[in-house]
Design a protein that fits this description.
By secondary structure, the chain is mainly alpha-helical. It has one domain. The protein has two helices and no strands. The longest helix is centred in the C-terminal third of the chain and has 37 residues. InterPro entries: MATE_fam. This is Na+-driven multidrug efflux pump.
C-alpha cells in the first residue's frame, strides 16, 4: 500500500479516535492519548531507523 494511502488512513483513524475520546472521556482522555502516542513514537522510530539502515547492508550481502 502506498505511503500516501497509509497516511490518509492513519489521519482518519486519529480523527475518529480523538472525536470519540473527546465525547466519552473529555480533555484528559485526549491528552492521555497524546502522551501514549508520543511514547509509542519514541519507541518505534529507532526501530524504523535501524530497519532502514540495515537494508542496504543486507542487499549488499545478498548480491555478493
Amino acid at each position: 500500500m502506498p505511503g500516501f494511502s497509509l497516511q490518509i488512513a492513519s489521519s482518519l483513524l486519529n480523527l475518529i479516535l480523538n472525536k470519540n475520546l473527546q465525547q466519552y472521556g473529555g480533555d484528559i482522555a485526549v491528552s492521555g492519548m497524546g502522551v501514549i502516542n508520543s511514547i509509542q513514537t519514541m519507541i518505534i522510530m529507532p526501530i524504523i531507523g535501524l530497519n532502514q539502515g540495515v537494508q542496504p547492508i543486507h542487499q549488499l550481502q545478498l548480491w555478493s
